[in-house]
Specification:
Layout: E1 4-8, H1 14-18, H2 33-42, E2 47-54, E3 57-66, E4 77-84, H3 93-107, E5 112-117, H4 125-130, E6 134-138, E7 144-149
Parallel strand pairs: 4-5
Antiparallel strand pairs: 1-2, 2-3, 3-4, 5-7, 6-7
Length: 152
């Protein structure tokens, strides 16, 4: 693995992001990437979307939102999606993305980052626990709300 780096989503990277592959069973837990990209158009002031590169190769995508005035607490600092290409999972790409996200939250004065996910055997729960998210609640639809605390 080369040195990972993160860049803003752009016209130069969007096609590669849309072509990130998933492992079998993961697709049921993740809406198409285009849904996440649409957030930039809807909330350009609060949306944070980054592409993870390994050298010049796109290996991941992360989308979050930072809105201190959101009416629901768990939407004020939230990880909306994280995709790591199937061939690159298990190499630290996702952990790198979450670490950069937490740094961004710290710089914005947030004290935590939430994530909302559906529990399941092939779902993201194990990953989120491994990188430091702790369940703190549940949505009205039965999805897990988990948070990672931002240290100063």
């Amino acid at each position: 693995m080369s040195e990972l780096r993160m860049v803003e989503l752009s016209a130069a990277t969007i096609v590669a992001v849309n072509n990130l592959s998933l492992k079998p069973g993961q697709e049921q837990y993740l809406a198409p990437v285009s849904y996440g990209i649409a957030a930039t158009v809807i909330n350009p002031q609060t949306s944070w979307q980054r592409v993870i590169l390994d050298g010049d190769e796109v290996v991941g995508f992360v989308s979050a939102n930072f809105d201190s005035e959101a009416p629901e607490e768990h939407f004020r600092s939230v990880l909306w999606r994280i995709n790591v290409d199937a061939d690159d999972q298990g190499r630290g790409v996702g952990r790198y993305a979450v670490e950069r996200l937490v740094e961004e939250a710290r710089e914005r004065g947030m004290d935590h980052v939430d994530v909302i996910y559906e529990a399941g055997d092939d779902g993201p729960e194990t990953f989120f626990h491994r990188v430091g998210f702790t369940p703190v609640g549940e949505t009205a639809y039965g999805e897990v709300i988990a948070e990672i605390r931002v240290t100063t």
